[in-house]
Specification:
It contains 12 helices and 10 strands. By secondary structure, it is an alpha/beta fold. It folds into 2 domains: 2-99, Nucleotidyltransferase, domain 5, CATH 3.30.420; 106-285, ATPase, nucleotide binding domain (Nucleotidyltransferase, domain 5). The strands form 2 sheets. A 5-stranded mixed β-sheet has the order 3-2-1-4-5, with helices on both faces. It is globular and about 65 Å long. The protein starts with a strand and ends with a helix.
């Protein structure tokens, strides 16, 4: 019996599967995020090596005796780091590395030309051109925007909430939501919190789910934050589609908790209509690890 291992690793979680020669899942395992940009290279490597061992343990397989023919690592963070890490693995067959955008692109287009928009902890646009080449836009991390990511949406909403707490805009549910998020009532205390907390970026991103809830409930500034964030991501995507596909209608996968929320879906559909953007949306419900499984089945 031969097996293959697939891994999808991001900033929040790392998922692994072990499949047999027919592609049936033999074992699954979940671990913490493994992005070296967040953890540092040593901790990222430890997360993945431990997770690989745990996956095989769940399947009751000895790595030196099991016939692992291939291991695919689709991960966030430095491609150079992951290529170097792959070279250190033993008893894993042929090790393939790639960005974490490839599995969701596979779910979106099934190997055909098209693109995918993803927004969760981070965000990116990935596209497969008619010649099969893979292209990326965005995905540069929170320091450079990552439009519609958790950090971006949280930042936009917190900025407006702070203006509310200063008394410059009409009070909405956003201001109290921020106070509940930080446990602080004073506007200056809230401001200092995000400038001094060691995990400030994570705290900002963690506010995004609450922003989505408020947007669904009808909070105007929360809805505006979602719409603006999605608009910036779509602008990146339109640059890609114009250059690669012209006016040809192509499939556009949509994945991630943020983009699959009702206010983001409304914004996406409105943008496609008002900008005459030639895409057919495909809202992806499968998890990225399913895209990994399909990539493992490719010759």
């Amino acid at each position: 019996m031969s097996y293959k291992i697939g891994l999808d690793g991001g900033g929040t979680k790392t998922e692994l599967i072990l499949v047999d020669a027919a592609g049936a899942v033999v074992a699954r395992h979940a671990a913490p995020g493994c992005n070296p940009s967040h953890l540092g290279p040593d901790k990222a490597a430890l997360v993945v090596t431990t997770a690989l061992a745990d996956l095989l343990a769940k399947a009751a397989l000895n790595p030196r005796e099991a016939k692992i023919t291939a291991t695919h690592l689709y991960t966030a963070g430095s491609p150079i780091f992951w290529k170097g890490f792959a070279a250190t693995l033993h008893d894993c067959g042929t090790v393939v590395t790639g960005p974490d955008s490839l599995p969701v692109l596979e779910l979106a287009t099934g190997g055909a030309p098209g693109l995918v928009l993803h927004a969760g902890t981070g965000s990116f646009v990935a596209a497969r051109a008619p010649d099969g080449a893979i292209h990326y836009a965005g995905g540069l991390g929170w320091r450079f925007g990552d439009p519609a990511s958790g950090a971006d949406l949280g930042r936009r909403a917190i900025s407006h909430a702070l203006l509310e707490l200063q008394g410059w805009t009409q009070p909405t549910a956003l201001g109290p939501a921020l106070q509940a998020h930080t446990g602080l009532t004073d506007v200056m205390a809230n401001t200092r919190f995000f400038y001094t907390a060691e995990d400030a970026n994570a705290r900002i991103a963690a506010f995004a789910p609450r922003v989505l809830e408020l947007a669904v409930a009808g909070c105007a500034p929360a809805r505006a934050a979602v719409a603006c964030a999605v608009t910036d991501l779509v602008e990146n995507a339109r640059l890609v589609t114009t250059r690669l596909f012209g006016r040809t209608v192509v499939p556009c996968g949509v994945c991630g908790a943020i983009l699959n929320s009702p206010p983001a879906i409304l914004a996406l559909k409105t943008l496609a209509e008002t900008h005459a953007w030639p895409v057919e949306y495909h809202f992806i419900s499968e998890q990225p690890i399913e895209g990994v499984r399909r990539l493992l089945l490719r010759p």
